[in-house]
């Protein structure tokens, strides 16, 4: 296939692009490259990879010429990021992705996979939440994801297969590394500070999935019979854990003493435990990596210098810096007109 990935310069998108290329597909990677195009330099050396620097809010049908399938991952990427500017979150994460889906369909693309999030479940009323449960999103990010789902799914036809993948909280190493995700951040704090901070008492539930496992869910969905997954929603993940349990897993997999500090309050009120039975049954999909695997690989990556913490690895802080820079440029431009 020739697959277009929006958000191809991101945490998951760059990993998905690598796996698709390894499996023999051609990839067009569309992104604003806010975090640096040099992160995908190795991918650009592959003749089957083409990078397109473009905002998804500006796509038209011509951008999908020759494309067989779209993996739509472009978004302001997590709940805290979505709160920086909720209107911008809706503009990109909902309306931008709705535009991608509609333009792809107009261009004759056969498959459209939307990257959504298990955060749409918000504060779950019970454990083992499956795809039949009515979501109760709390954050702007989660609400935008659910709105994007609601816009994309009705577009499904026999000739345009639409599939929604609700991803669990992701962990693991990536070219565009992120240290604002639970397992990644805990591991970083353990290595660099000798401490793990557990907010909100640690009893809240989260589902988790390794980055290569969630990327592989897209690959397997692309290979599936479209009739089996058309207009369907799938939870994607491996296991659920309470945040305090997660802290113990991190501590147990770091080879030196770690201090664990529990903080009773947390502004993040999400609490959900998710079921993955449907994707197991329909696609035969199972994860290969555990949170412990992720902790060990991140520890090794930090130890050998494969990854380092820098401003771009904290998504919220980097977005704020970009927005502040944009406001400064606009201010300078306005002032220059007054001179």
Describe the protein's architecture and organization:
The chain is of the alpha/beta class and 339 residues long. The chain has a single domain, classed as NAD(P)-binding Rossmann-like Domain (Rossmann fold), CATH 3.40.50.720. The protein has twelve helices and twelve strands. A seven-stranded parallel β-sheet has the order 3-2-1-4-5-6-10, sandwiched between helices. A three-stranded mixed β-sheet has the order 7-9-11. It has a two-stranded parallel sheet with strand order 8-12. Strand 5, helix 5 and strand 6 form a beta-alpha-beta unit. Helix 6 packs across helix 11. The termini are far apart. The C terminus is likely disordered.
Q: How much is the radius of gyration in Å?
A: 20 Å
- Kindly provide the name of the CATH class: Alpha Beta
Oligomer: single chain
Strand content: 15-25%
Query: Looking across the biggest beta sheet, what order are the strands in?
Result: 3-2-1-4-5-6-10
**3D shape:** globular
Tally of distinct domains: 1
Mean pLDDT, all residues: 91
* Poorly predicted runs: 331-339
Order of helices and strands: EHEHEEHHEHEEHEEHHEEHEHHH
**Looking at this structure, what is the CATH superfamily?**
NAD(P)-binding Rossmann-like Domain
How does CATH name the architecture? 3-Layer(aba) Sandwich
The termini sit apart by 54 Å
From the helix content, strand content and strand pairing, which structural class follows? alpha/beta
Overall number of strands: 12
Biggest beta sheet attributes: 7 strands, parallel
Number of helices: 12
